[in-house]
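Table S2 (text version). Query chain:
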Amino acid sequence: MPWRSRFAKRSSTRPGLLVGAVALGAVVSVIGLAIGSSALAFAGLAAAIVGASGFALHLIVTERRRHEYAEGELESLVESLGRIAESLDPDQVLERTLREAKDLFGAKASLLSREDTPRTDTAALVPLHIRHERIGALQLVRAKPLDREEIARATLLADFASRAIENARLLEEAQVREAERARLSDQLVIAEQEERRRLALFLHDGPVQSLAGISLMLDAVVESMAADRLDEADQVLRSALERHRDTIRSLRDLSFNIEPVVLRDQGFAPAVRAFADQVGLSNGIQVDLDVEAGEALAENARVGLYQIIRESVNQALRRGPPTRISIRVAEAEDGGVETVIADDGAGERRRASYDDIEEQARTLSGRVEVEAGQDGGTAVRVTLPPYAAHR
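Corresponding structure-token output:
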């Protein structure tokens, strides 16, 4: 900084000369008064006044130069802060901070971690903090130590760089979360489309075909009654009635599987208990339940977790048949919810069998682990994070 060194040199020499001139004029004026020489006293007084005026002018010019210098330093610092703010990557922010510190202070700049120690005793260390946590320090080394003003500017630079690093990290996290949200949204749309296709296929191949058959059977009943074949009409009508009851039963089961009324009206535990009773009576197996913790779940989590439990149990029945199924819902250590559906039937080796369950869990930001059960069957473990389980 050559201009600053020249300014400092002038500031240290010129004030001394001016003060000396004022003092000399005052002495001459006193001597003139002492010897009774008015001319000498007037000359000394005039010299003192001129020296004082010159000293005052020097102070004014010096102060102005100091302000100009401070403004220049401030402009350089602001420009450096602006260049640092242009970086969107945390590593780029650190690299740009080192370059700007080197240009601002003419020093060798380096970054130290929390465990590193200064390289020299004259090094200036400026800490870097993120959310009140020290992540390292900015080290500045040069032949002439930094003065108080330079350390203040370096501190401001480091604080701004720390905030820029934090903002860059938050931006990265937000971008990752946004990408994950978009992916989950796409998966949710695909899952809804697949569910609609399965529902349409079931209705077409099941109830719709059954109702069409019933319609034909009723036509046959009408024809038999018109031909006075009452026994035949009675037989066909009874068959149509039985098929009609089967169709109503299948539609009721479909409604219960989509979202049981008891889940909406009474809660999670009663809905799982009703499903377990139905499975146990229909298949002659024992179903153990520990699902009271599910009552604290959010509405979306309750519905999604119920569907996962239903699908896991149905897969166990298709592999089986098992003699025992256990369903346990408990709060995890991190505040989330962990659900385990275990059976003692045949073990499942096909990973693709759990794709639907994993897809349903991903819509809840959860994860699925499939492992061999203690009784030789399969255990499906579903973990939901706190923000998904209780939001």
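Notes on Table S2: The first strand starts at residue 108 and ends at 112. Residues 1-12 have pLDDT under 50 and may be disordered.
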